[in-house]
């Protein structure tokens, strides 16, 4: 683990100085960690109320705000102090003749990073016209016993930023913007689905049998039941059982967990949206996905266009559509359907495949290696081999393929969809094929789930389903280059 360089003796002196100040504050009879500061206003609201204030203008409008001290200026009997809350920053104007000598001395002795609550009247400074509060009361709300990151350079060390996100948020405006955008994105996604009659549900995170994706699970043990359970890798199978039960439009937005590597686009826990709509198919879901993303971008960012590096990405529909076969052929020169066995495809690729990799895995490898990095503008890749899609319906016209698409933006997959398989006998056969892959050594294959097959035997209408990766979508919306930028506390190697 790397850390920001510090000189330990100097840091020790700073920490001791802050501890000494804490002692003096308590000796003065002041509680440095009070219980509350009620009825405060957000700073952004105060700024909005006085947006047109002229230089030198004073008001009788009183306000009560609180925040962390970020800067202090002035000397003698006047001081200017900047404080920031979660909404914005404002300047405080403190005068000894208003506060009194003792209260003023304690205030100007506070440290950068201390949290205070204040009351005062709005004014604009004569020089510069900066909106300020002329304060007549203040209260210490929390004494900061450690110095904040350097206010000029921010927090630059990436390891420290991700491990100590609280410091990153204190120091870096851009990090605060990213997570505000993430929150608004999730709010707008929910709104879009709710307005169209979808019902949000919660399904088990601890599951007796994992499924719904090709991935390795995390395993845990329930002591009272004396049985192993799995952290879910997807919500798919439970949600489709709700379609069987008559909830025709259903979605879940929450965490999934996959025991896989950590990279710029992978984290072992991640946020997924899955939705299912009865009587739809993968053409309907493609239409809905591109319109959902475009509308959420417009409402969240104010535009459907975002800058990612030196490229402008436009989420406005319609998105490009191309088959998996054609995309691989264009990028690699290999026609996968002309090489229908693992041996033939491996020979065309010029590689010796891992014994655990079947034909479908090789096709997926071609997609990841040759096609995916070039998919910068929003693109649907359609019609996948059945080996890669155990829950998708067979293609209506192409033998050996299923009705499935994946959506890519910025060289990253953000969503996946099927015309959902609803034939219980075919689903049972697909599970048996996956069992053969498990026997071959594929620890990401889908285990047999008899409870799900029995649910399908009750009858499930034609259904379209979508899985949308929230973390990756937020990467695209914010221009972040790695998943860690959009996760508050990403998984890190020790």
What layout of secondary structure does this protein have?
Blueprint: H1 8-27, H2 43-49, E1 58-75, E2 78-84, E3 89-95, H3 96-99, H4 101-108, E4 115-124, E5 131-142, H5 158-163, H6 165-171, H7 173-195, E6 199-200, E7 206-207, E8 219-222, E9 227-231, H8 236-244, E10 249-257, E11 269-278, H9 282-301, E12 305-308, E13 311-314, E14 320-323, H10 324-332, H11 342-349, H12 359-371, E15 379-385, E16 401-409, E17 412-419, H13 424-440, H14 450-457, E18 463-469, H15 470-478
Parallel strand pairs: 3-5, 6-10, 14-15
Antiparallel strand pairs: 1-2, 1-4, 2-3, 4-5, 7-9, 8-9, 10-11, 11-18, 12-13, 15-16, 16-17, 17-18
Helix pairs in contact: 6-7, 7-9, 7-15, 10-12, 11-12, 13-14
Summarize the structure.
Helix content is 34%, strand content 26%. With 494 residues, it is an alpha+beta fold.
What does this structure look like?
By secondary structure, the chain is of the alpha+beta class. The protein has two domains: 8-142, OB fold (Dihydrolipoamide Acetyltransferase, E2P) (Beta Barrel), CATH 2.40.50.140; 173-319 and 377-486, Bira Bifunctional Protein, Domain 2 (BirA Bifunctional Protein, domain 2, 2-Layer Sandwich). Helices cover 34% and strands 26% of the residues. The chain is built from 15 helices and 18 strands. The chain has helices spanning 8-27, 43-49, 96-99, 101-108, 158-163, 165-171, 173-195, 236-244, 282-301, 324-332, 342-349, 359-371, 424-440, 450-457, 470-478; strands at 58-75, 78-84, 89-95, 115-124, 131-142, 199-200, 206-207, 219-222, 227-231, 249-257, 269-278, 305-308, 311-314, 320-323, 379-385, 401-409, 412-419, 463-469. The chain has an eight-stranded mixed sheet, sandwiched between helices. A hairpin with a 6-residue loop joins strand 4 and strand 5 (131-142). Helix 11 runs parallel beside helix 12 (359-371).
